[in-house]
Specification:
The complex is a heterodimer. Chain A is of the alpha+beta class. Chain A is built from 2 helices and 13 strands, in the order βββββββββββββαα. In chain A, strands 2, 8, 9, 10 and 12 form a 5-stranded antiparallel β-sheet that branches. In chain B, β8 and β9 form a beta hairpin. Chain B has 2 domains: about 170 residues, no CATH class; about 40 residues. Classes of the chains: A alpha+beta, B alpha+beta.
Chain lengths: ~220, ~220
């Protein structure tokens, strides 16, 4: 089992593949969405892999006053429009196969976790009030994705390609643990048993197996 | 069971006080002072299609509520028609102040002036309130998160309006998990993902024991 992260910067790469104002209101995959740094194929687990997503985060947002003129900076965030919103007003949704994880109370899929609740990067100015618990399980053979949506028009004016912390640069972050081989089998077993899948419980199951083997009577000659 | 969040802000289009879901051309809307507005269907900002309620096969545990720390903002939880937070003399109150549970965490308590220009905020607020024990919404109940502010959001100019927001974090238990949540409630055990998993394990162990006992009773044959 291995702790893994995936960090996405919507402004990295060429100008053509950088996130711009025209992308606001559209949900885009951080893995294969065509903007920022991407990977070669959709994120999925093989038959011998099990993924546990433990945290997702996206660029923060600050809410102030619509009287502030456009391009005013506040704690490193810029208001792209004169509406009192500083930053990208970004959200991140987790999708397993075709199902969105986060729903509104009317059972309709929503935009996901707001960057104001789970900011990336974190700072004293922008702290989290969301903790992804229980974790999200990606079973063997499933496709998983993280979709970013922004709603602030003008947030990316002059954002440029040079990333800076606490700027209107659009970041996203996913922390997950990859269980493969025998660890994935144990993860499946734990799931059947109704036990949370985490490295501690996988190790506990291994110890239990070893102890039961050790305690078995020796065969007679 | 799934961890869920809902974020509300008084942002809608220039031609409507509320919108379903969010829009890219949002501007802040006025929230009348000292009145409680449901963040789900209150008619201001981003709303959803119907009141937040649990079906017969759902169980909701509200784990955190927060709102903007400025303008005297506060959030109250209402289950069916009963307000959760009340004064010691059992009278109504506005709920948890944003100063105690700020959203976003680390935001300032200054909201009235043009603080981005004036650079007058030097505070990064931390929470001093923790919603523990959690609030349970039983199957078939309606729940509301009510936001209120004590200070007018409009400034000197018509366009000079403060953006306020509120946040709720809850866990949705559905299907068999909701049944287990109800069972835990009967047993007086706290409902959280760990305890739901514990109850599942107990059921599985019971089944295994009864299977072994049945085999023993039948003289070793299943």
């Amino acid at each position: 089992m291995r702790s893994q992260i995936y960090a996405w910067n919507g402004q990295s790469g060429t100008a053509a593949s950088s996130w711009t104002n025209t992308n606001t209101g559209t949900a885009v995959s951080i893995f294969i969405g065509g903007f920022g740094n991407n990977i070669t194929k959709p994120a999925e687990t093989t038959a011998t892999q099990f993924v546990v997503i433990e945290d997702v985060a996206v660029s923060p947002t600050a809410f102030l006053n619509s009287g502030d003129a456009v391009s005013t900076a506040y704690r490193g965030l810029v208001n792209g429009a004169e509406n009192g919103v500083f930053g990208n007003r970004a959200y991140i949704q987790v999708r397993i196969n075709t199902t969105d994880y986060f729903l509104d109370p009317d059972n309709v899929g929503n935009d996901g976790i707001p960057g104001a609740a789970s900011p990336y990067p974190r700072s004293t100015n922008f702290q989290p009030c969301f903790n992804l618990y229980p974790d999200v399980y990606v079973l063997p053979g499933q496709v998983f994705d993280a979709l970013v949506t922004t709603y602030q028009n003008g947030a990316f004016d002059g954002a440029g390609t040079a990333p800076a912390l606490e700027s209107s640069t659009l970041y996203a972050f996913m922390k997950y643990t990859l269980y493969d081989g025998p660890d994935a089998l144990i993860a499946n077993k734990l799931l059947e048993m109704g036990i949370s899948i985490n490295p501690g419980n996988v190790d506990w199951y291994k110890r239990t197996l070893i102890q039961s083997q050790t305690a078995a009577p020796m065969p007679t000659a | 069971m799934r961890s869920q969040v809902y974020e509300w802000s008084n942002l809608a289009t220039a031609t409507a006080t509320s919108t379903l879901r969010r829009t890219t051309d949002a501007v802040p809307q006025l929230v009348p002072v000292n009145r409680e507005y449901d963040i789900f269907i209150g008619g201001i900002g981003n709303n959803i299609t119907k009141p937040a309620e649990t079906t017969a096969t759902q169980f909701v545990v509200i784990e955190d509520i927060a709102c903007s720390a400025y303008m005297g903002g506060a959030v109250q939880v209402r289950i069916n028609t009963t307000d959760y937070f009340q004064n010691p003399d059992v009278t109504d109150q506005s709920g948890v102040p944003g100063l105690a549970s700020p959203y976003p965490r680390g935001s300032s308590d200054v909201g009235g002036a043009l603080i981005a220009v004036a650079q007058v905020d030097t505070v990064q607020l931390l929470k001093s309130f923790d919603l523990y024990p959690d609030i349970y919404v039983l199957p078939g109940q309606v729940f509301q998160i009510l936001y209120s502010c004590a200070t007018a959001l409009a400034g000197a100019a018509a366009s000079n309006t403060v953006v306020v927001s509120a946040f709720v974090k809850y866990t949705l238990y559905d299907g068999p998990d909701a049944l287990i949540a109800n069972k835990l409630l009967e047993l007086g055990v706290t409902i959280n993902p760990n305890n739901v998993d514990w109850y599942k394990r107990t059921l599985i162990e019971q089944q295994q024991r009864s299977r072994v006992a049945a085999v023993a009773t039948n003289g070793g044959s299943a």
